[in-house]
From TrEMBL:
It is found in: Membrane. GO terms for molecular function: structural constituent of myelin sheath. The gene is MAL2. Residues 1-139 form the MARVEL domain. It comes from Alligator sinensis. Keywords: Membrane, Transmembrane, Transmembrane helix. PROSITE patterns: MARVEL. This is Protein MAL2. InterPro entries: MAL, Marvel, MARVEL-CKLF_proteins. GO terms for cellular component: membrane. The chain crosses the membrane at residues 30-55, 67-90, 110-135. One of its GO terms (biological process) is myelination. It is a multi-pass membrane protein.
Length: 140
């Protein structure tokens, strides 16, 4: 439960930090935004299912669903972390506007992108721990 709350908090920070930049590479950072927003909302929905005891009303193996949800989210967040780190690594890559050249990310956006990469990694670790714990619950 604690790992889920941390992953929601870190995921929301990834969402906010990526949105705070100009999003210089929409294809890469668009996927990061999609994963962070979707995972945040689905995690809140999944948490509400448990909090409001819908698990007793719906006949599903909830331990298996917990494992599948966190496992899939872990895989998607790992990909989002890699894409965010790739965007951050292109800090000095020149970008052409009309006839001028400037860096892909200015120094302020570079710092924000580093923070987003760190929080994406932390979120990936949290979802990985949740996946391992869910597997343990499911198989016992």
């Amino acid at each position: 439960m604690c790992a889920v709350l941390h992953s929601q908090l870190f995921g929301a920070l990834v969402w906010i930090l990526v949105a705070a930049t100009r999003v210089p590479l929409p294809l890469l950072q668009g996927w990061v935004m999609f994963v962070s927003v979707t995972a945040c909302f689905l995690s809140i929905l999944f948490l509400c299912v448990f909090l409001f005891s819908y698990t007793h009303r719906i006949a599903v193996d909830w331990n298996q669903m917990d494992f599948l949800f966190h496992g899939a989210t872990f895989v998607f967040y790992f990909g989002a972390f890699l894409l965010q780190a790739a965007t951050t690594s292109l800090h000095n890559f020149p970008r052409r506007f009309n006839s001028t050249q400037e860096k892909l990310l200015d120094d302020h956006e570079y710092n924000i992108s580093i923070a987003a990469s760190i929080f994406a990694f932390a979120t990936t670790i949290c979802y990985g721990c949740s996946t391992a714990l869910a597997l343990r619950r499911w198989k016992l």
